[in-house]
TrEMBL record:
The keyword Nucleus applies. PROSITE patterns: ADF_H. GO terms for biological process: actin filament depolymerization. This is Cofilin. Controls reversibly actin polymerization and depolymerization in a pH-sensitive manner. It has the ability to bind G- and F-actin in a 1:1 ratio of cofilin to actin. Binding to F-actin is regulated by tropomyosin. It is the major component of intranuclear and cytoplasmic actin rods. Required for accumulation of actin at the cell division site via depolymerizing actin at the cell ends. In association with myosin II has a role in the assembly of the contractile ring via severing actin filaments. Involved in the maintenance of the contractile ring once formed. CDD domains: ADF_cofilin_like (cd11286). Residues 5-137 form the ADF-H domain. The keyword Hydrolase does not apply. It is found in: Cytoplasm, Cytoskeleton; Nucleus matrix. InterPro entries: ADF-H (IPR002108), ADF-H/Gelsolin-like_dom_sf (IPR029006), ADF/Cofilin (IPR017904). Keywords: Actin-binding, Cytoplasm, Cytoskeleton, Nucleus. Belongs to the actin-binding proteins ADF family. The lineage of its organism: Eukaryota, Fungi, Dikarya, Ascomycota, Saccharomycotina. The gene is COF1. It comes from the Eukaryota. It comes from Komagataella phaffii (strain ATCC 76273 / CBS 7435 / CECT 11047 / NRRL Y-11430 / Wegner 21-1).
Amino acid sequence: MSRSGVAVSDESLTAFNDLKLGKKHKYVIYKINDSKTEIIVDKISSDESYDAFLEALPEDDSRYAVYDFQYEISSTEGKRSKIIFFTWSPETASVRSKMIYASSKDALRRALNGVSTDIQGTDFSDVAFESVLERVSRGAGSH
């Protein structure tokens, strides 16, 4: 339960575990239900395209997302994968939406074990592939 009183649905945790352990999904987008009581799954996809993920984020409303981000540091080290937690809160979202998502984030974030990086996005440049790649590869040497 978060400070805002919003709970995390079982479905939300199942979707995350399917992404993390089962590798069934590429990303999961979460939203707070209309009655503002629970964080639920908004969209699940196995589409490998990062652009498809970005297109699934609403332009004028907040969301949370987890993404199985794959990248290559160098040709000798091969591909790596990190699970990234996104808090998407665009400038155009209502103040109420931004506030409830900000105050409810910890409940979901604490429930998701195995996330390596948190990214806060207020516009699409914050969550662009290159921006995310820079964030995850910066910490790559320390893991």
